[in-house]
Design a protein that fits this description.
elongated; mainly alpha; single chain; about 170 residues; 9 helices; Tetracycline Repressor, domain 2
């Protein structure tokens, strides 16, 4: 229901009271699950991010690809997702802007992306687990920087994807 409220009415309308009303629950029930609006927003932020990462991770595990196709899919999916400026994830993130909790959660989500990169790329790399993990930390950072450059209009999507693709290929070879 929280996602529906964000999608239909915007993140500013997502309050504990409004969620209780729309869900047909009493306020105490909602407050038992989410002590504050920030806690609700963080839970929703995590849920949306984990769904996106898990869909990609599961798709790659279900239908393994060769190294070139894996890198192409990973670079395109990451740049497109990280550069989006609309949608529920961005709306919830904006509602959390400036909160100390968001910085902690954002780092947790980046760590989750690093783990997904490691899982997806490990079959195509000769690096040790520790070396691959460190490379993936750098790759996720590079992906974030390229997505930011794309959002600011400093490059086109195809350029950001091509660059990220080259960085990933270089890192695993």
């Amino acid at each position: 229901m929280a996602r529906t409220i964000v999608r239909e009415e915007g993140a500013d309308r997502l309050t504990l009271g409004h969620l209780a009303e729309r869900a047909g629950l009493s306020k105490p029930v909602i407050y038992d699950h989410f002590e504050t609006r920030s806690v609700l927003l963080i839970a929703l932020y995590r849920l949306i991010d984990m769904e996106v990462v898990d869909v990609f991770r599961n798709a790659m595990a279900r239908d393994p690809k060769g190294p070139e196709e894996t890198v192409s899919m990973l670079s395109a999916a990451y740049i497109r997702c990280a550069s989006k400026t609309d949608g529920e994830f961005q709306a919830v993130g904006a509602a959390l802007a400036g909160s100390e909790e968001k910085a902690v959660v954002f780092q947790e989500l980046l760590d989750n992306c690093v783990q997904m990169f490691v899982e997806v790329l490990s079959a195509h790399s000769q690096l040790s687990d520790l070396e691959l993990t460190r490379c993936c930390v750098g790759l996720v950072g590079a992906g974030e920087a390229l997505a930011g450059s794309l959002r600011r209009g400093r490059c086109r999507e195809t350029e950001a994807i091509r660059t990220f693709n080259a960085l990933i290929r270089a890192a695993i070879h």
